[in-house]
């Protein structure tokens, strides 16, 4: 039996199919006095729409050269979608008319809704309620609409970049309509075609996540590009990203904003370490979303992936006619994390037989200025270069000619020889410009003739795109983690360090034993029973960071030292925090010897839910802020990836004579801490273990703190 969620997802997908593939459109509020109406109507001809367009105007008459219906109901035939361009005060009436006509897809250009404040938000809620009561799929309000380039369906209210590049494979989704236009314009200038261009605006109904979910199944779309200001449906976006990764459709995303979510995290460290932006960054790493920071990198990365797809062998061969460009490319490849291996001796020998006497067979390969005299040098050098067993992808730097005259001349011949060399090499290959430059129609024709994958990206953006494409391919090969059943719900609500450590122990996390004492004599007796040096820590529900106020003493041994330590801790804390309630003092065995202190902290993000941060712990957690983050639940394998991402990762493998920790044991402990936090339910604000002491023989929680929502 299908789940309700599956039925809802199918209904949503069907709704978007009806919208994005509409064959008849009503232009509600059509008037030749409006630039929006003029552009929207002109786009049907510009894009080659073959369906029917129905202007709707209260005054009737002729609008845009067609007879205008006075209402949607007066059109007199079924209509797939409506574009509402009426003033805000007329939207409700226009929507009711659209509903009466049985139109079940709407794009609302009109602004004046949630973006203007509380009153506008109430109007938007009423609009959404009207849409849902009639089963209407609503895009907007306050959006420019969409263009389905693949099926030639434009419900878009500004002029798109022309001419349309056929066969576009990148679906662009943006919460900002203007930014969607900027992305489309830049892609068009670079000769990179789009399959879709969608502005979601206020996202009263259709949001970015729903459009991504649609594009994952769209046959014309090979890559998805996003511009996000916020995320309105994080669970669906995460699920869609997982489906995209499984399907081999990369998602390249710009997300603006880096605000913190720490306000409700009480005094826990985790709130300052896990913020909105850092959680989104973690989501990208976890789900294979390629995050970029500018339109250029979005377009070039998506354009590269649309052309070369998944690259299995991620070792790069660099080729240029310039030694200086070769050196720049090598530097940028290293910065992008791309391996540029040395060539094998047989490859060097084969290249010596081809290159001029002054040429040197290296990777990067400078084919030398000899190619200016004999363009076939590219066609003769690329096959032996590409045959080297250490290479997986070839990147050759050469600007694409702009004009028909150049293409017919020597510059065009060089590109043709590069194309011949690429084909003969048997390797995936891409040609990159030396500096960022547009691609003309004549240039696109030459690329089609030579079957060359090309980016007019320049060296830096091009190598960055290759690095990101390689990282995405590597992430995809690791696969999408299998869904894990939620952990068994805990029936306790631990408060205080002692109870939290005991709870972690019950969930399979090794934790140091602690005993609460209320007098110096009890402290001494407990220490003697432990039979070695001890740690004393203040126990108070009002104090999270004990060491800051003298609430922790280490390595105490002997009755006198323990008794004196008890008195000193109590006196110090009472002087620093006289208002704090004191439960007593905790006594724990002192752990000596080699080891690394780690930090593991869980925080419930308001958008994405529970997330876990792992980093170097103890006093370094705030000083270094060196953490890796993932959404929960995590597997031990994912935690191993997190540990490898830390800037201080080399400390885990032994440093200056100290033994390496057991990373697998540490990862198991962190994964169990994450499961333990999930089991405590939504009232948990944060759960921290600091430090989690990792050694060559295992991992042990030495201190823990749970913070609860007082209203939960």
Automatic annotation (TrEMBL):
Pfam family, one: CoA_binding_2
Alphabetic keyword roster: ATP-binding, Ligase, Nucleotide-binding, Tricarboxylic acid cycle
A GO MF label: ATP binding
Domain CoA-binding: 19-113
GO BP terms: tricarboxylic acid cycle
Tree of life domain: Bacteria
InterPro entries on file: Acyl-CoA_Synth/Transferase (IPR051538), ATP_grasp_subdomain_1 (IPR013815), CoA-bd (IPR003781), NAD(P)-bd_dom_sf (IPR036291), Succ_CoA_lig_flav_dom (IPR032875), Succinyl-CoA_synth-like (IPR016102)
Keyword Heme: no
Similarity comment: family membership: In the N-terminal section; belongs to the acetate CoA ligase alpha subunit family.
Record PANTHER family: 3-HYDROXYPROPIONATE--COA LIGASE [ADP-FORMING], ACETATE--COA LIGASE [ADP-FORMING]
Name of the molecule in the record: Acetyl-CoA synthetase (ADP-forming) alpha and beta chains, putative
